Amino acid sequence: MRLKTDKNVYVEILNNRLLPCATEHYENGHWTLQQDGAPALLATSTEYWCLANLPDASEWPANSPGLNVLDFPIWMMLEQKGCRKIHTSVQALRKCLEKARNEILQDHVRAAVEGYPRGVKAVIRAKGVHIE
After folding, report:
1. Total domain count for the chain?
2. Which has the closest alpha carbon to 38: 63, 60, 56, 55?
3. Distance between CA atoms of residues 107 and 113, nearest Å
4. What is the per-residue burial (b if ≥16 Cβ within 10 Å, else e) of 73-99?
5. What Rg value do the Cα atoms of the chain yield, rounded?
6. Residues 36 and 73 in one domain
7. Could you tell me the residue range of the domain that residue 85 belongs to?
8. pTM of the model
9. Mean pLDDT for each consecutive 10-residue tract of the chain (132 residues)?
């Protein structure tokens, strides 16, 4: 696990992990990759890779943290469990977050996914403006 993902590592993940998984699970090619504004994701080399390898890359939806299933409920759970105390090292923080991740109940993940349409509707009502 790396702390910082640069453009080369990100494209490697896209190529070696995402693309094979998406190809296996979405045989018809109907899937969309949403990305946030992290530098590795906005790099020119990443954009070129996406245009060459992803379906409908030119028709991606607008990026909105409000549309990321993980942003609010899941990250909040990780933060509550993993950041209760000050960690003395990155390794200690990583270990605590991994433990917290493993304790997240499937019902909580399911509820986060089922709440996704509400977030989409809120963004539509807000005419694409960032939502909280």
Report:
1. 2
2. 63
3. 10
4. bbeebbeeebeeeeeeeeeebeebbee
5. 17
6. no
7. 63-131
8. 0.49
9. 75 92 83 80 88 72 62 82 84 90 90 84 78 68
